[in-house]
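User: two proteins, same treatment. go.

Assistant:
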Amino acid sequence: MERRTFIKKLLLRTGAGIGVATAGLVGYYQPRKEFYQQGGAEPDVRLRLQGTKKVVVVGGGLAGISSSLELASRGFEVTLVESSAALGGKLTGWDIDALGERFPVEHGFHGFFEQYYNLKEIFASAGIRQDVFLASPGYPVIFKNSPEEIFGQVSKFFPFNVLSILAQSRRLDIGAFLKHSSGLTSAGELFRYEYKKSFSRYDSIDFMSYCRQGNTLPAFVDTVLHPFADATMNRMEVLSAAEALRYFHFYFMGSPEGLAFTITNRDCMTALINPLESKLKQLGVTIRKGTMARSMTVEGGKVSGVVVDTQERGRALILRIDASAVPEEGFAAFVTDDGVPVMVGRKGRGYLAFDGRCTHIGCPVTPDALTGGFHCPCHAGRYDASGTPVSGPPKAPLAKLAVMQEGKSLVVRHDGAIGVYDGELLPCDYCVVATDVRGTRSFIKASGLNQPGFESNIASLGESDPYAVYRLWIDRPIEPVDFPFYTVSGYTYTDSISLYSQFQEPYISWAKKHGGAVVELHAYAIAPKEIRPEEEIKATMLQELHAMFPETRKAKILHELFMQQSNFSRWAPGDHAHRPGLETPFLNLFLAGDWVKVDAPVFLMEAAAFTGRMAANAIFRQESLEPTPLPIVPMEGLFA
């Protein structure tokens, strides 16, 4: 009899809850890595494709990279289309000039957990060595109104994994926890995750309400659940309780790996994305960076091609606005019917307009009072009033648009565009859409697929609240610390702190040379009521840093980088019912990304890699090829 079955039957016979039953099961059960069973006809045993099949993969993040690697390794002719100038998605990076040196920067700190099985296999396939990763010595949490908690490497055996968390905590009491974890309390449900039942019961409420209604020990919520749940990049108050259960099952309750995670000793672009790109090229993948996938063409109920625009020759852009909406000074932001931001201002007696997409990786810019021009909050890019970049990553100026006045209206169009440019068609036998939520919505909408249900589900996808990253170069060191990364709880903005000068080059060398430190503050999800101008958010985060590390109060800021973005997937109550899955109404079109509905317990980066490989497996099955085994943590919780 399997251990899981034995434990379930034992508990049913004795009628015991978690609090009583664990006494007789000490060290007995350890979750095991499993392999995902994907439905479909049994394939042949062939590994490689016979003949030629073309696949267009839209999106160069982890989902698109994973899918492309799998497909190309089996003999498919793959074209990977990415709108930005670099691959990597949220792992992408770029260089900045600061303090007379060149520094690599990225979207924010990334931790790579041991249960990222599929992502780790993708890294290994590209020859990425383990020496680029450093094991984190623990998982500390800084609280605003109580002493910090330090959760070290915990046991992989149930119930020691839970008891060790309690034993390491100053605020949690084992007896009180077991009392609140017995029966049908919300804490007990963390051990009973089961995909269908959990989503049926709990997707309709938010995780905060779930904890309050479920009689969960308040100290356990404040100490463990709240700070860890925030790392979903969704606030606990707007996070589906079912998604939270899946999240905790994946990261801890059902994971054989506990809380162990690693960090990179170089920036992610150098350590991870560049080797992955080299591997893609080695396998023959055609990589089209700086190329926007505009739409799909459909023939005979199948996708026949993907229409793309390039930075050199973009699509026609037309916008009609009321001239009175343009301010006397500065610029106003407008959006075309298909979502393209446009900046319009006055120039003498005429008007001036720019394509509002940053030339770095396409983020929307906003009018900037500091320069009289434009600001890209995603990557700290700034342009003057002529659209010329003056700081940050962007190197190319904003594209100028032609403006014509027709009575009281203005018609803004792509400069020099006459009629409609049809773009370049990339023919394909299969297509994998692996962009983020915003890109997928735009791509599917522009394709006009005449599939109302599918298109409605795609349109209902959402993004979580904005997040902010504030990196500081300061002129004095932070007192010796044992941890490179801290989770933070109870502050207005700061949810984590990363001490880059403790673990990553070239920041380690810079700090030693100049006697300073490089610190990054991260706000995971900013509530609508807390949205403020950039300077106010920075000032508040700086005060929060001073409160946590008092020695920084006297430090001088030598350089700073502030970014604010909104591109993480939303996991709100009720979203799951309409969330699209891997398959689509078209037999040769598949979806991949962390936002895709899947019954496997995966999350964030691992979900992207997993669904990318799932999409490749779906294509393999149609071509009667053996699928790639997909490792996962157990599908269900111990007491499901």
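Protein 2:
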Amino acid sequence: MKKSEQTVSYQGANRSMLRNRSRQALWFGARMIGGLVWWELVLARIIGRKRVEAGRMRRLIMLARRFRGLAVKLGGVWIKLGQYLSTRVDMLPQEIITELADLQDAVPGEDSARMRALIESELKAPVSELFAEFEIEPVAAASFGQAHLATLRSGQRVVVKIQRPYMDEIVDVDLASLKTIGRWARLYKPLRRRVNLFLLIREFADGVLAELDYVAECDSAERFAINFAADPVVRIPKTYRDFSTRRILVLENVEEIKITDYEGLASAGISREAVARKLFQTYLKQIFVDGFFHADPHPGNLFVQPLDPQRAKELGIAATDTPPGATGSTEAATPFLLIFVDFGMVGKVTPAYMKELKEFIIATSLKDPRRLTAAAQRMGFFLPDADVRRIEQAIGLLFDRFWGMTVNDLSDVDFTEMYSFAVQFRDLLSTLPFQIPQNILYLGRAVNILSGMSTALDPKFNAWKEIQPFAKDIAGGGAAKTVQDVLQEVLKIARITVQLPGQIDALLSQTLNGQLEVKAQLSQSSTQDLRRLEGSVSRLSWAFVFAALLIAGTLLLINQIPVIGAVCMIASVLALARIVVK
């Protein structure tokens, strides 16, 4: 957060305060939509659309800055909305994402007497009876809650996460204001065609409400503990359900060396290479085996705990689990535990979704635009009123020209080719009827953070080397399914081959009889349109490349094709980076 930005603390959910929050939010929304209509519909007819378009990006950046000011002032839902929008690389230009990317969720701590009263109300006992020690000053504070260090009567050191008073009422008012602004925005047809606002707001609201439910976070922490129960190197903090409610969460205090504290790791004798390798391996398991992953792996949520040899022996952590450090010493590095905290944001990959991912990659491998479009539509990549047939045509053209090319090859594509594509499919690129499902965004965000963290820990980190043994471990049974899929495709091709002579004969007959009809959609070439669409073309192309490579890598690894799968996974990270920095 910028130093000049200061947020306010909630002092009680009285009706006057709630009405004031709603008025400020609705006034911002009214000004935003009014300005949009004034510039795009009124002034465009008076001063000309070219002049309006010339200043559009500057106006959008100013709008993002005003929203940032509102979010910092009100906190809570509005900061969460800014963070959410900063992940929507499929909808917003990079300039807007940059304005919102570092919006921080931090406010002053709540009054200690109020928080103590809330704890006693929730847990039905005085704080002095619940805890042997309780530090009244929070160690961390955010818009929705804050954390305190404490000691249970048993002597266990814990972190007590407490939700701020009246957050249910505040969130209800904020979400109601957001939904009202969404209804107003839907009256603007170009925006309604471009974005499924109802879906996005519902998706965002569901995430906010889930974050308010500390029981759900407790469930997620316990699920991670079960998933990694057989891995002695991963530590998940213990939860204390007897001291936890929807507004209170008590967890084991496991804070150790921050994963980005490189000096601390070196002082403890911990191999940074080993930490990078273990972190990468845990995410492979979370995504491809468990289908349940920590979606917010930033440095504040990851710690490393050094172990003495006796404790490592008790846990069954052998010397081979912690190879020598970067210095090249022949002595084994200090054994360690990798610790995850904060399970409020998690991603899921359901079996049904994995099935669609597999269908997606099969269609890609067969260069079947109709099958790929259908799979992408079932996965939620298109808006409800999207012209699926037109999208299918665009994908078919992309297959014909770019299928099989590497990411480096795509970077070297001649500009005139992209211009030709933009002109031919300008109707799609001007409306962009696409949206990336939230879980895919969560996954892409996690992969991007993970990639940067692993490389920072070990500049020579080789993801190809690490992914190959993992692919062999999880491939059991996958090959048979792949063979079955291939056989089905062979039968499909055989049927098409049998039908082809008859179809050719019918086509020739229609041609000779003058009955053949050809439909074409032609578009005017326009340099100004190209400038307007250039950014959208680039983001669309790279978003398509990222999604295809990520899905391809996932399924190839599962189906025991490690080398090509590894290439796809690494390339997907590069494609995602290209989207982010574009």
